[in-house]
Amino acid sequence: MINPLDINHFECCLNTLDRGLALYQTAAADSLDADMYRSVCVKEFELLVEVVGKLLKKKLRPYFASNRDADKLTYKAVIRHAARYGLLPFEVAERWLAYRDIRNRTAREYGADYANEAVAVLPTFAADTHAVQQALLT
Q1: Rounded to whole angstroms, what are the CA distances from 53 to 25, 41, 58, 80?
Q2: Structure-model confidence comparison of residues 33 and 108, the more confident one
């Protein structure tokens, strides 16, 4: 029997994202609260993009000849295989590839423009992340 994945950290990050996004959406524009909630959301976005890749890689292990073969997959290969094996719909997988690119920009470049790029996709990202949660639980 395959051990279930430990997704506690993932769920904690997702809950923080959900709460932060709700607060950001209700904060007054250009307020300190909006800045703080945006920062929380961007950080959780960055964390979740990484955590999802690691958890999907573990979830994909049974599809490969060995764990070592699965562990060699790059992030983008993990997402493509997750779609191939039905863990993610193909259109959702395409968005995860885009999320990774956005995450790379926010993690390496600083400034409001990069944070706003991430914030713009957050509602769809949150929904897609909840879909990943279901895939991880099955």
Answers
A1: 27, 18, 9, 11
A2: 33
Asked if 136 and 60 count as a contact pair (C-beta separation under 8 A), the reply is: no
Q: Tell me the whole-structure pTM to 2 decimals.
A: 0.90
For 4-31, how does the pLDDT look when each residue is reduced to its tens digit (9 = 90+)? 789 999 999 999 999 999 999 999 998 9
How many degrees, rounded to 5, is the angle at CA 115 between CA 109 and CA 121? 125
Q: State the Cα–Cα distance between residues 112 and 62, nearest whole angstrom.
A: 41
Distance (Å, whole) CA 85 – CA 33: 42
| 50 contacts 103 by C-beta, under 8 angstroms | yes
CATH number of 8-137: 1.20.120.330
Distance CA 32, CA 38 (A): 10
Domain residue limits, the chain: 8-137
Q: Inter-axis angle of helices 90-108 and 75-84, to 10 degrees? A: 170
Residue 54 pLDDT exceeds 70: yes
pLDDT at 32 over 60: yes
